[in-house]
Model the fold of this input.
Amino acid sequence: MGRRKLKPQKEAESPDVQLNRMQVDDDDKDSSVETAAVAAATPEEASSLSPSPSSLSPPPIIAPMEDVAGADQTSADYYFDSYSHFGIHEETVRTRTYQNVIYQNDFLFKNKVVLDVGAGTGILSLFCAKAGAKHVYAVECSNMADTAREIVKGNGYDNVITVIKGKVEEIELPEPRVDVIISEWMGYFLLFENMLNTVLYARDKWLVPDGVILPDKASLYITAIEDADYKQEKINFWSSVYGFDMSCIRKQAMLEPLVDTVDQNQIVTHSQLLKTMDIGKMKIGDASFSAPFKLVATRNDFIHALVAYFDVSFTQCHKPMGFSTGPRSRATHWKQTVMYLEDVITICEGEALTGCLTVSPNPKNPRDVDITVQYTFNGKRAQASRTQLYRMR
Ligand SMILES: C[S@@+](CC[C@H](N)C(=O)[O-])C[C@H]1O[C@@H](n2cnc3c(N)ncnc32)[C@H](O)[C@@H]1O
Done:
C-alpha cells in the first residue's frame, strides 16, 4: 500500500467519515443527507431527472481555423491565460452537480436576474437561462469570453445571456442589482488561486438583500494517510541522489503540497472538519483562519502525510445538494492536497494526532496560499511534535 492510484469509481463512504461531513457526493446514494438530486451523475440518470439537458448540447460549430476564437494562440498565451483553453472547462462531477442544482431548483431562477462570476464557456449561464432566468450576465475575463459569446448565440440564448468580457472588479453591469449569483470559484485546497474574493466583491456590490448565492457553503477537511512509497519517491529521493546530497531540493519538495489522488485505502484516521465558509455571510479576510484538529486512528499504521480536501454545498436548494472532493468520493480535477510530515508517526488504533492548521494568502502573491501545520503525537510506540510550513504556488 502507499502508492496512489485512481480509486474505483463506485465506493461507499465509510460510516466514520459520514459522521464527520455532510454527504453530498453523487456516489453516495444511500447516505444520510438527501442526495437524490445529486445522484444523477450519469447522463442517463440526469436526463431522467432534468428537463431534457441533452437538448443543451450545442450543434457542432464548423468554421475555418482562423475564425475559431483562440486558434492563433501560442503556448505562451495559454500559459498567461490558462482559462482560455477549453480543456479546463471539461470537468463532469462539478458541472453535472451545477446542472442538477439549477434544473431541479428552477424556482430560484424563474424571472430572476443572474450573475455568473467567471463564466468560462458560459455553461452555467446556459443552464440558468434554460431554467427560466429573466436575464443572465456572464462575466469572464479571459479570451474564453469570445467563445462563450459564440456558444450563447449558437444556442439561441443571446437575448437572455449577455457575455461581458472583463474582470468582475472592473466591469459595470447594465443593472444595479442581481437576484442570484452563481460561480464555480473553487481552487486546489479550496483556496489556491481562488476567486472567492471576486465572488464576495460581486455579492457586496450587486446582490439584492436575501439574494441567492450558489454554492453558499464550502468546507475544508483534513485526514491522515500512510504513504511510504510516494514519500520515498517524491521527497526522500533527494537526500541521496546517486550518492550525492541534494537535500536542499528535498526541503523545497517538503514545502510544496502535492495535488494528487489519494487511494482511500491509505486513509489511517477519521476526517476532521477544519472550517466551513458561509459564502453568503463571510467577509473578505475570513478565508484566513486557524483551526485545531484531532485525527483518531482507525487502525494500527504509519502516518506519512496529512491530506486536505473540500466539499461544496448548495443549501438554498429544495433539498441540500453538493459534491465532495474527498478521497472516498468520485475523483475530480481538484484531487486532494497532500502535505508530507517530516516525522513518520507510528500510530495505534484509537490514538490521536492533534494539532492546528493555519491558512492565509501569501502576502506577496495573494493568489498563493501559505499553510502552517503544528502537530503533536504522544503514542505508545512513538512521540513527535513539530511545526511545518507549506506554500501552494
Ligand atoms: C474554474 S473556471 C469556471 C468556468 C465556468 N463557470 C464553468 O463552470 O465551467 C473560472 C473562470 O473564472 C474566470 N475568472 C477568474 N477570475 C475572474 C475575475 N476576477 N473576473 C472575471 N472572470 C474571472 C477565469 O478566467 C475562468 O474562466
